[in-house]
């Protein structure tokens, strides 16, 4: 009778649950697991560092609405993977981390890479399970996959001790275990089964009445709405009511930034003066100034739409609608349809927003049109924006990180399609760039991926350019190289003292570092650019080649502000 071991059973279970991609770093005791998964048709993207692989798994969960899977070795591998797991939790994205762990018989004896991994992952996961026997593998996997994507999505963890991976059962028993897993535990059915919206009709009528009678209504949407694929229902809501809208950074593109009701360029006015704001799939956290004055008006009434009851309880909005963003917006649309209303272009609020948008866009353009050399942040960003717009549809996925690079990029780069922007997100996580690029290329093979990142963000995981080359992923990484974190040495003379005063500043890197040469070491294309013409040529070549490339853009080290737009926090 044919026998199979734990490694094979994990691979069979993953394949059965519809997992198509895994990210990770192999080693003891999970190498065979990865090979088995590949032999069953799962694409394994092997990274250099679990941190980056974990970031990839988290973003993959967002982009595909099914859990990204990270595989790590035991002990230190699991600890490195916590970066990705915690990032998934902070952003509410579905992912699972599977880590090998030491033999259960050796626990407490100082075994190779021993760690109580279940305890270590607890603060960063919705559910953490250990399979203590091979027969528990299918059920444990099913549970973590299901939990990761049900309700408010997040990170989950599965611990696989090495003795469990080496245990054997008959293939027949394995198939029977897999067969017995209920279909409701299948992660791919979980999104629809667990987010069914059950809100009372009175709440819906109240929400519509608030919007109907508002003087200055606003629709805000975030990455929860993007995750819920709410773009069509939101478009209908915006266009049927004529209410201006404001996306959060990762909500950008659900409706095009160029839409006539987009209030992005009039953000301060929109949030400062609105009297009713329906906020869909976005937390009233630091990114939205906690929904408080002085950024928001004191008497704004929030209608909060969120999958998480806990979130609604925390924020205490005027009205909370718990459920899936797409479903709730559809219900709102239905309710409005029976008695439609539309503000129209001449409504004073719509006019005020449009005028502010026009003024601010003109001001920004005046800054952007100048060709400043050595480069500030604006000149190269404009050139990149125009090159991206020139690509048309399908629009590339833009990955962005860094203080000034991300801030300036968010205002200048134009998003026209949903889920085409990934950035440092809720946690302000730096170092996500390469992992996100790889996830995006794997999850959306029809799209080019363009990373626009600071040299500091790039440096966290720069070695993963080898991964780009190895898998020949269509990713162009543009590094805004200003020689350090925020720029060069920005210390005042009083700050430069003591026995180590001759050391480089904590904020500075080697000036004019040759980041483009890094990818050339692996056979990718590198470009060093310092003028508009050089940048345009590099973009034109790399965008049409759709091959791994790094464009090293030399920026004036004194351009931009320390801490970007968060100076008050530093
Ligand atoms: P942003 O960074 O864009 O402001 P946040 O991460 O702060 O977005 O908020 C996303 C919110 O979306 C979270 O509170 C999460 O619970 C919620 N969410 C996740 N999935 C859904 C969904 N399917 N429908 C509605 N809300 C969702």
From TrEMBL:
Q: What is its EC number?
A: 4.1.2.63
Q: Name the keywords, alphabetized.
A: Lyase, Magnesium, Metal-binding, Thiamine pyrophosphate
Give all residue intervals belonging to the Thiamine pyrophosphate enzyme N-terminal TPP-binding domain: 9-119
Q: Which family does it belong to?
A: Belongs to the TPP enzyme family.
Q: Which residues form a coiled coil?
A: none
- PROSITE patterns linked: TPP_ENZYMES
Q: Which Gene3D superfamilies match?
A: 3.40.50.970, TPP-binding domain
User: Required co-factor?
Assistant: Mg(2+); thiamine diphosphate
Record function comment: Catalyzes a carbon-carbon cleavage reaction; cleaves a 2-hydroxy-3-methylacyl-CoA into formyl-CoA and a 2-methyl-branched fatty aldehyde.
On subunit structure and binding partners, the annotation says:
Homotetramer.
Domain Thiamine pyrophosphate enzyme TPP-binding residue range list: 404-553
Give GO MF terms, alphabetically. Answer: 2-hydroxyacyl-CoA lyase activity; magnesium ion binding; thiamine pyrophosphate binding
Its GO CC terms are: peroxisome
Query: This protein is called what?
Result: 2-hydroxyacyl-CoA lyase
Q: Where is the Thiamine pyrophosphate enzyme central domain?
A: 204-330
Is-annotated flag, keyword Metal-binding?
yes
Q: Which GO terms fall under biological process for this protein?
A: fatty acid alpha-oxidation
**Catalytic activity entry:** a 2-hydroxy-3-methyl fatty acyl-CoA = a 2-methyl-branched fatty aldehyde + formyl-CoA; an (R)-2-hydroxy-long-chain-fatty acyl-CoA = a long-chain fatty aldehyde + formyl-CoA
How would you classify this enzyme at the top EC level?
lyase
Mind telling me which InterPro entries this protein's record contains?
Answer: DHS-like_NAD/FAD-binding_dom, HACL1-like, THDP-binding, Thiamin_PyroP_enz_cen_dom, Thiamin_PyroP_enz_TPP-bd_dom, TPP-bd_CS, TPP_enzyme_TPP-bd
